[in-house]
Amino acid sequence: MEIVELIQTAELENTTQTEINMSFLTVSEEAVVNMSAAPRVDPKGDVQGLVIAIEDITDVSKVKNTFKRYVSKQVVDELLDDDAKLNLGGEEREVTVLFSDIRGFTNMSEKMRPEDVVSTLNEYFSDMIDIVFKHNGTLDKIIGDELMIVYGAPISAEDDTERAVTTAVEMQERILELNKTRKKQKKKPIQVGMGINRGVVVSGNIGSRDMMDYTVIGDTVNLGSRLCSVAGQGEILISQTVWKEIKEGFVCEKLEPVRVKGKKDRVEVYRIASDGQTKQ
Predict the structure, then answer these.
(1) pTM score
(2) Overall CATH class of domain 87-272
(3) Which of 57, 117, 165, 204 is most buried, taking the most CB atoms under 10 A from its CB?
């Protein structure tokens, strides 16, 4: 309903009219408001005027539109409750990044019908993202069959790293269940490798004037991706910074240092126990 129409309806019908999330253009940008128009009547019941109330929710709308694709509703609500937690302009912050990638999916997809490729990925991503949101992770992006997940942006918590590792363990457990179903359907299993790293990144809305995405960038992200690329089927590889934070809660195995692209020296790496076992 347009603003003029809302006012006219309130006056003609002598009833309060309300419109939620009404958008209109101002001189410089689009505004989003909640608007109500209530008639003022005299003792005879004749309308003498209108009381119009406008609530500017432009900033709230921007937050919802920016983050609803990336995080659970719980995280969005937390951002709206505390503006201090939100900085879209760009800032340095410490986060834990989780990468997961389906091994050999390109070759596997070449032997599948296009609709089967899409349905397989949709089923896989739906289950994985449900687990991510369960642990309040941020879905940074989907690239082909790879997921990039962030803990610590836009909201940070003391247990970011623990939740990232827990997410990875539960994802691998869910993949085992998926593969049981796929086996019954005579379909090839899905094998996934994962890498987790922690460190300082730059976070914020990055892109062009017409299209921007909230993301994190930096060497921390690159190393997380590299660990994922060297992880074997069903493996969860973590960096030393991650290991130091979760070693008391998870069973880890130290591996031989690995050489990764972009690093002069070999990188210390650990593997989470294959069964996802946690220490008691």
Answers:
(1) 0.74
(2) alpha beta
(3) 165
